[in-house]
Amino acid sequence: MSGSALDTDILVIGSGISGLNAAVKSALAYPDRTITVVTKNTLLESNTAYAQGGIAVVTDLNHDTYEKHIEDTLVAGDGLSDRKIVEMVVTEGPKLVKEMVMMGVEFDREQSGEYQLGMEGAHSERRILHHQDTTGFEIQRVLVQQARKLPNIRLLEHHLAIDLITQHHFGEKVTRYREDTRCFGAYVLDLKTREIKTISAGATLLASGGVGQVYEMTTNPIVATGDGVAMAYRAKAWVRDMQFVQFHPTALYGVKQAGRAFLISEAVRGFGGILRTGDEEPFMDRYDERGSLASRDIVARAIDTEMKARGTDHVWLDCRSLDPTELATRFPMIVSTCRKHGINPTEQMIPVAPAAHYLCGGVETDEWGRTSIDRLYACGEVARTGLHGANRLASNSLLEGIVFADRCFQHLKEHEPFREPRESLPAWRSEGTTQPKEWVLISENRQEVQRLMNTYIGIVRSNERMNRALQRMKVIYEESEDLFRHTTVSPQLAELRNLINVAYLIIRQSMEQKENRGTFYNLDLE
User: How far is CA 11 from CA 27, 256, 448, 469, in A?
Assistant: First the structure.
């Protein structure tokens, strides 16, 4: 049902590292202005909170350089990263990480007081700052603490953004080529009252995270349904590079909790873990001279090849030669989770398989986080900034999040769009809709989308697989759009609609990709 109208100076959709960072900075800079944060679960539930490995940043200039980090990022991106953006993120990152430390984030240190720097795949030096194996949660904890302290931040937990409001909602025609399309705010569903609120905003920041739940097997939490990408696409923003979905090579095989696979961090391989086949043969040296520490696209594809060649569902990660005390100290959550499922990682190899992990594409932005729609910004995993290219370098995501959150804030501070008068917005129209009688139609379509994407649009694709996926997705789309037109909006239906939009974009842009790069691999392009 349609409901109340709210007004805010800055609307932030998403409560991960990017969204809360931008919200806190804006609230501190403008104590007389209102910043509204919308998140569909609690503030602590986001992809950020599940980031185990850490944040890649140059802190030890005696052994590391910006140039090395830049080059590692460009190589991992397989030639499709924007060098200007890479240089900007790498060089601006250290100062912003210091800000987070000043805010209260604690990274692990050696007894000398120096940072304990981790090594991860495709990095040429140790440069990963971490808090054991719960770095993301530590950052999230501090940001939530800060956000709750500030009286001018309005926190709307258990609220799901449904659609961005543009001239389309005033009856005007909006296309991707229209140059004056403007975002006026968003329609947001209160998940407790089922009321749809109309939020008018001077500026809107999309920081809604990734799309992992479009796949059956993913490391992403249940909330990662691609809402921001889908809303921006429907609002006619430019969306690019959706074909580049990064699969994390090592999710714990056979374990799925709350809709997500448990991640075995890349840092475990950086610590000395070795990938092996069932007969204990190390296989990664046959694919890349860096062995188990090659970039994620190479490792995931190698594991996929080995599994198919041997007819198995997983490979093994061997940590048996590592010091048990050091392993448990550095990775307490991973060790305890393995033991909970009957695996002692110091005595047994860990069964692992790839799972959908990170979107390298998304809503296209410039270096200030601006999208093609006026007053709509995007940062974090929802955004295609040009940093990652065809494949993300491990632990660059949290770095990108804080840099682009700061960039969005700096641009808002310079231009202050929230000082301009705001228009009265049309309320959400729900006339003529009814409650769904067959909830199974929604749940079954969601599962079918996930199965279809896992089967046809995974690590390895082909023209036939993509064509088959597109044909079936068109049918699911038509069924669900008809349901959306005639059914009262529910979170289940809204998420299904978003997943279908995202799946379509991944399939279509995969079909348009004419060379194998990074995370994208089409058998017919060999």
Answer: 12, 34, 33, 36
Please give the span between the terminal C-alpha atoms of the chain, in angstroms, as a whole number: 52
Q: Taking every pair of C-alpha atoms in the chain, what is the biggest distance, in angstroms?
A: 69
The set of residues, in sequence order, having a beta carbon less than 8 Å from that of 306 and lying 6+ positions away, is 277, 283, 312, 315
Contacts of 353 (CB under 8 A, 6+ apart): 217, 250, 251, 253, 303, 307, 313, 314, 315
Are residues 8 and 30 in contact, defined by beta-carbon separation less than 8 angstroms? no
Q: In this predicted model, what pLDDT tens digit does every residue of 79-123 receive, in sequence order?
A: 999 999 999 999 999 999 999 999 999 999 999 999 999 998 889
Residue 488 identity: T
The β-bridge relationship of strands 315-318 and 376-378 is unpaired
468 is catalytic: no
Contact 86, 397 (CB under 8 A): no
Q: Which of 154, 260, 296, 407 is catalytic?
A: 296
The answer to pTM > 0.85 is yes
The domains of the chain, with CATH numbers, are 2-51+133-243+360-419 (3.50.50.60), 245-357 (3.90.700.10), 439-525 (1.20.58.100)
Contact 132, 267 (CB under 8 A): no
Distance CA 320, CA 323 (A): 8
